[in-house]
């Protein structure tokens, strides 16, 4: 039976796999792009924000996660420092684009200091595990006294947007194919 636990650095390979398997479109165009996708959306969090991340585990492997960076300021400093070097080696263009990833979180960091990513492998979706992961993280952030959480999602991911609305996330803005949503805690 799958259960939720705090993430560990040893979950990195599983988290990168989940990130790639649940990505779509250009993010999975080829092997190189899949590596970049994992670096952009999962590796940093497991390596640098381990204590704020949770995984859904079954039979010793992670099959879903909720990843979180609690501070936009810290994220901007560290994400660029560690991740960009590795992305540059794969693609200078994507390194340039990901240089701007922290900007949206920094601009809204006064109201929503933290941000999250949630993904679950196909066969474990729609069984209530996403809700359990979300409740676990929201409780964790409240305990830490963090006043708001935000996320960025593909604007056409209607299912994820319905999921976030159920937890009280409100749309902040939709632009360039992405929707930003936020929730006060
Ligand atoms: C989005 C996601 C995290 C939700 O987790 P989940 O375990 O599937 O969701 P739950 O079973 O806890 O369902 C909670 C709510 O999500 C929505 N939802 C879940 N499955 C759905 C489906 N098949 N169709 C439409 N809405 C669905 C509903 O609002 C549901 O509420 P309900 O149970 O009252 O009907 C998960 O489906 C997922 O990883 N999807 C693929 C990756 C992704 O899109 N990640 C988000 C990127 S921004």
The gist of it:
46% of the residues lie in helices and 24% in strands.
Notes on the protein architecture:
This protein has a seven-stranded mixed sheet, with helices on both faces. It has one domain (3-144): 3-Layer(aba) Sandwich (Aminopeptidase). The chain is globular and about 40 Å long. It is an alpha+beta fold. Helices cover 46% and strands 24% of the residues. It binds coenzyme A. The site of coenzyme A has 18 residues, from β4, α6 and α7.
What is the N-to-C succession of helices and strands?
EHHEEHHHEHEHEE
Low-confidence stretches: none
Number of strands: 7
How does the major sheet shape up?
A: 7 strands, mixed
Rg measurement, Å? 15 Å
Q: CATH superfamily assignment?
A: Gcn5-related N-acetyltransferase (GNAT)
**Percentage of residues in DSSP E strands:** 15-25%
Total individual domains? 1
Query: What value does the average pLDDT take?
Result: 96
**Portion of residues within helices:** 40-55%
N-to-C span: 30 Å
CATH architecture: 3-Layer(aba) Sandwich
So what's the CATH class? Alpha Beta
The helix-and-strand class reads: alpha+beta
Strand order of the largest sheet: 1-2-3-4-5-7-6
């Amino acid at each position: 039976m799958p259960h939720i636990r705090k993430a560990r650095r040893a979950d990195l390979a599983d988290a990168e796999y989940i990130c790639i398997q649940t990505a779509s479109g250009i993010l999975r165009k080829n092997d190189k792009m899949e590596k970049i996708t994992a670096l952009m959306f999962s590796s940093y969090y497991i390596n640098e924000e381990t204590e704020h991340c949770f995984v859904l585990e079954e039979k010793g492997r992670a099959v879903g996660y909720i990843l979180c960076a609690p501070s936009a300021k810290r994220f901007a400093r560290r994400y660029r420092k560690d991740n960009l070097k590795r992305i540059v080696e794969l693609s200078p263009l994507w390194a340039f684009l990901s240089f701007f990833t922290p900007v949206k979180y920094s601009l809204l960091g006064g109201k929503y200091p933290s941000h999250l990513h949630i993904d679950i492998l196909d066969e474990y979706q729609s069984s209530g595990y996403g809700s359990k992961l979300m409740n676990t993280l929201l409780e964790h952030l409240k305990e830490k006294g963090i006043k708001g959480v935000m996320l960025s999602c593909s604007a056409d991911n209607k299912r994820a947007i319905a999921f976030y609305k159920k937890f009280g996330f409100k749309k902040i803005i939709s632009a360039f194919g992405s929707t930003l949503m936020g929730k006060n805690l």
